[in-house]
Amino acid sequence: MSAPPDAAAPRPRLVFWESTGRCNLRCAHCRRLDAGAPADDLDTPAAEGLVDAVADLGAGIFVISGGEPLLRDDWAPLAKRARVRGLAVALATNGTLIDDAQADRLAAAGFARVAVSLDAADPATHDAFRGVAGAFDAAVAGIGRLRRRSVAVQINAAVADHNAGRLDDLYALAADLDAEALHLFVLVPVGCGMDLDAAQHLDAGATEAVLEWVVARQAAGTLELKATCAPQYHRVAAAWLVRHADERGAARVRAAMRGRGCLAGSGICFVSHTGEVFPCGYLPVSCGNIRQTPLAEIWSLSPILRRLRDPGQLTGRCGACEFKVVCGGCRARAYAATGDYLAEAPACAHRPGRH
After folding, report:
1. Per residue in 282-310, pLDDT tens?
2. HSE value, Cβ hemisphere, 13 Å, CA-based, for 127
């Protein structure tokens, strides 16, 4: 008999499903170390059960990701099932497989938003990072096909040394492509990303500079802009508001600050293509598998998730930090650096008490 769910457990804002481990690119920063095989993926009945479980949890958004989700044959009926169950559904893709036929299917599927990965405003940088020549041109063409069909597009960019100094160009490209949003994912050293040269990872000072750029752009621009996997954004934005509280654009910054910094295990969870449940896609600590345990039980009762929801469990500088409730520090980076997901997070310039 399974244990009863914990009524105090928060509802997840987003559930990410790695619908397949397969991919047609060879990204330098991929969270995966292997490509997986079709037989490893949840089959359609199991995926339907996952959709129903996510809906029963009361999640806000269900994100179908990968790998490359368009390599599955059943993504369209699964998206429809999720919408029928009341979920907002998004798709995260590298964009290279979106020909006219796929664009028609994506438009008909009713996704709230399709997120396409673009890591730079120039083909050479993007293609080098994604490991396949022509990936940039194919992704841009795919975005164009989606926009011509009025599909809302979000651009996701992994931020590291290769593009941190050229974010203005990336922002301009997102605007030129008529994207609704640009989300910047500060690179987390996990999976293939652990093999990247250390010089490509942003140190504390470089991360701070990126976040200061994000806040200034949020205040001045109209494109939805978010920093992801950088929970210290909340501290940087709060400091900006102290200096600019009455200025034009302050309301946009306040809106972007809603919620907590690191949402691993509290606002989001990640279900792998084999059914493993992780606090987020970059924190490879399994909380259970939906093939053996219902998702609701894992979400409610996992000791790992419960610890992650309690800022009082944090140690080191994060544990002593006055921003630990709104920031929380990146738990994935802490784990990558120390093997302890509750340890202080690296790549943070703040010293507690000096705000």
Report:
1. 999 999 999 999 999 999 999 999 999 99
2. 11
- Please work out, in degrees rounded to the nearest 5, the angle formed at the alpha carbon of residue 28 by the alpha carbons of 22 and 30: 45
Tell the burial category of 181 from Cβ atoms under 10 Å away from its Cβ (0-12, 13-18, 19+): middle
- Alpha carbon of 107 to those of 27, 111, 142, 180: distances in Å? 27, 7, 12, 16
Phi, psi of 165 (to 5 degrees): -90, 5
Residue 54 burial (C-beta neighbours within 10 Å; 0-12, 13-18, 19+): buried
Q: Which helix (H) or strand (E) covers residue 224, if one does? A: strand 224-228
> Tens digits of per-residue pLDDT, 244-263?
888 888 999 998 888 889 99
Nearest CA to 70 among 45, 29, 101, 48? Answer: 101
Show the DSSP H helices in 162-315 as ranges: 167-176, 204-220, 233-244, 250-256, 295-301, 303-308
Q: Report how far residue 342's alpha carbon sits from residue 344's, in angstroms, rounded to the nearest whole number.
A: 7
Cβ-based neighbour number of residue 101 at 10 Å: 9
**Angle at CA 349, nearest 5°, toward 347 and 350?**
125
Using a 10 angstrom Cβ sphere, with 0-12 exposed, 13-18 middle and 19 or more buried, the burial of residue 294 is: middle
Residue 340 contacts residue 334 (beta carbons within 8 Å): yes
